Amino acid sequence: MTKIVSYCSCGGLKQIFSLSAHSVNMFIYLLLLAVIATVEAQRVPGQQKTDSCLCKINSSTWTFPAVRFVEVTKQVQICEENLNEFEEKMSNTDAELPLMRATLQNITARLKAFNYLHTSGLYNALPLRQLNQELEEIHQSVNESHLQNPNKETHNLLSELNKAKNDLQRMYKDDFFNLETMKKRLRDLNNRAQTCKTIPNHFRSTCHQRIMTRISSPSVTKLNSISKSYISGAWGRDALLNNQERYWEHCLVSGHKHGNTIRVYNSHEDFMVNRNYKDEQIAPSYSDKNAVQGSGTILYDNTVFYQCYSTAEICSFNITTKTTKRVKLDDAGIDNKFPFCYYSCRDWTDIDLEADQDAVWVIYATQENHGNIVVSRLDPLELNITHTWKTHLFKRSVTSTFMVCGVLYATRYVSTYQEEVFYAFDTTTGKEINTLSLPFEKVSAGIANLNYNPVDGKLYLYNDAYLLAYDTFF
């Protein structure tokens, strides 16, 4: 805009005029705008009286920037509103920062348990060479079964394995198939191959109804006989069908991790009143190479089966002969690499031993199977692995497992006083069942061991130093 400055002239004299009082405010505002205004001078003629020069000034000659004034006023108001909004956000942020910091710390702590999945390389791409080797091993196993007992299932398996070989060769050329998808396919083929392998004719002959339908309320509830501070351990009855009545309890007395004795009772009455028992020494000390690690212990045919001290090996201790045997469990995770569950769990549950009608079962997880549960059938006399099945069930999503008639059952945490059987895997068919819902009661949150006994059809639970037993229904 243009800024006009007027001056008074009387006979060659020039005098800058003065504004009247009512124009002071307007004049001050115009001075503020002077930096962006163009200045023009205006001469006003005046009259000389005595020693003064009098001029008449018409204020209409000054153009006040009313439109500009309104715009600036609006901008000032918007600026004030934005500033107030910003101050409010800053105030809210200061209040929320501690909550955000606490949330991040909580997330970090919760994710720490999963960190091993990354550091252990469980989700790295699977090399084709490893797939090819596994495929050859499965093919050889099925071919041997087919030669011994040719049938439709072995014939179909051989056909599918040959197709898988062709698909694998195509992967070498153009990576047409996803490696993880192929791995899952081989796992399913392997489970079917394991089922085709020779199993004794009398195996599961007493299992008419295969899937459990209900679990009773606890029929036995008592503290272990040694100390209520021993929250990890196992208990039950000798699992051999033709064996005499023999009850046992085993507590992990060294850091809830190691033990070296098992307490044995020759009757249920003696067990209930803690009398006439005998403490059998499995190893000379808690740190001996034959000491027990973890709570996955079972008694079968007067022989204790358990994880050997700090190794991926299964030990068997014969109470009668006082002899110990060992067998290596290939690729099994130990030392809390693959324990049960994340919530209210007992540590050192990497390897779980269970007993069935005529076999001992080993439940564990491997890196090769992505931390999912692996089930192996163990010959209790020769102490060697005869069959192995690989499931899709992540071991840390499970609180405990047990075996009935060659069917693996898994439980999960519901609340402090309730657990639920939610999953089953049938080793006869290689099929998984994810629709089970068999709730049962407990007296505390943590589960250290749960095992099924084929002699009396009961479940035996070691529940934070409490010993519970349940009837089962099929």
List keywords for this structure.
474 residues, alpha+beta, 5-stranded antiparallel beta sheet, 7 helices, 27% helix, 32% strand, elongated
Describe this structure in words.
It contains seven helices and 29 strands. With 474 residues, it is an alpha+beta fold. Strand 27 (449-453) and strand 28 form a beta hairpin. Strands 6, 7, 27, 28 and 29 form a five-stranded antiparallel β-sheet that branches. Strands 22, 23, 24, 25 and 26 form a five-stranded antiparallel β-sheet that branches. A four-stranded antiparallel β-sheet has the order 8-9-11-12.
Write the layout of secondary structure elements.
Layout: E1 2-10, E2 13-16, H1 24-32, E3 38-45, E4 47-49, E5 52-54, H2 66-112, H3 115-119, H4 128-148, H5 152-174, H6 179-196, E6 214-215, E7 220-223, E8 233-237, E9 247-251, E10 258-259, E11 261-265, H7 268-273, E12 278-281, E13 292-293, E14 298-300, E15 303-307, E16 313-318, E17 323-328, E18 352-355, E19 360-365, E20 372-379, E21 384-394, E22 400-404, E23 407-415, E24 418-426, E25 431-433, E26 438-441, E27 449-453, E28 458-463, E29 466-473
Parallel strand pairs: 1-3
Antiparallel strand pairs: 1-2, 4-5, 6-29, 7-29, 8-9, 9-11, 10-13, 11-12, 14-15, 15-16, 16-17, 18-19, 19-20, 20-21, 22-23, 23-24, 24-25, 24-26, 27-28, 28-29
